[in-house]
Amino acid sequence: MPNKKKTAVPIFDNTLTVKYYPTLEHLHSNEEPIDLKIKEIEEKFAIRRNLENFEWTNNPYLTDDNESNEFHIFSNYSNYSNEGKINLDHLAICFIDESIGYAVVANSDIPEGAWILFNGVTKSIKKTDSEDPIIPHNCYISFPKNGLDSNDYYINAENTGGFSSLILASVPSEIIENIDDGSIPKDEINNLASSNFNATSIYINNIPQTLLTTNRKINKGELLVADYGKSFFLQFSTSFIALKKNGSRASDVINKRVNEYLQKYILNRNISNLPENDVTSQIIKNQLSKLDSQQLIHRNPESPRVFINQELFIVYPTAIQDILELAELFLIQKSDIEKANNLLKSASLLNEMEFHADCTKAIEQTKNKIKNYRETKLSNHKNTSILINSKKKTTQTNAAQPGSQNTPLRRVGSW
After folding, report:
1. pTM above 0.85, yes or no
2. How far are the Cα atoms of 196, 230, 267, 293, 348 from residue 178, in angstroms, in the given order?
3. For residue 93, what is the enclosing H or E element?
4. Do the strands 160-161 and 55-56 form a parallel or antiparallel pair, or are they unpaired?
5. Mean of the pLDDT values across residues 346-375?
6. Are 65 and 4 in contact (CB under 8 A)?
7. Least confidently predicted of 179-183, 192-196, 333-337
8. Domain with CATH 2.170.270.10 in the chain
């Protein structure tokens, strides 16, 4: 199948050059950034990401049957206007280090309430039987929230991106609050690169995009960071690196504390919605915790990662078997056929990707268990209905007999 045409939404002007700091030292020295041509930036990113080609853009791209060159923008963000756009001349690219790569820094002060749209190519997620497909992972994928209809989309900024797709992940605010126990100097906590953007949805031709808005004034030389949610941190093959506002690394103590809290979250991310004091729920919680702990153990560069229902999942060697076991637990413990079926579909799709040993036989066994359970449940429901109807008929027959205490005698003939 030929690739669908992608169309740039002309919101920000195209530029011929991008301001560039080759190192943090260059940034902190108060020297002026280098003006790199777009072609030079694209070559750097293609090499860094091991791509044949990379396309720099200041705007989002739409694809999937978007044939019109007219763009209708709708936003529930009250301050949305052309005047609020971030001046792209106030942004620069900086190479942090080999572990982190490129980031965006403020080359001039940026006021609170200024906005930029997330860059990348927006594609719709094709659903089958109300279940999201599994999307192969790359760390440049994001999922805009859609409040208009049931369609889901993702934005891929791996091969096409710009300033906004280089905004790094901040330490989540709740984690900053947890590590601030009084033992770490206050100025170190305050100097952490906490989120300076809020995300909200904007719609272009009814397709959701992510609008990033500054939540405070950003000073010149400061790193641009956003809170992408805690499950985002599963993508890292090693520990997450917490940064200061100027892009340098936070202290070892802070990084250790941050990663301890992130691990606690990863180990418990799927069990918070289940009842606390419920024996059957506890059995399912144990299996969910097993899946989470195994993902943490296999959090290395060799382990493949995918998105299932917009959640990052690390595919470890026994992942399919564990998902099938979870499906059967939902079936037996909760009588939740729909949940069991959705988990079965996820296991089947993972099996088709051939990451690890073939599990077709185990999948068929779970499929048959769900089928038999459904048929038994339908049969029991049918038998119960027959029994209820039979009792109703018996009651009605008895009620019609002369002398019944429940109804008066009926006269034969007219009154």
Report:
1. no
2. 19, 14, 17, 22, 39
3. strand 91-97
4. parallel
5. 92
6. yes
7. 179-183
8. 7-266
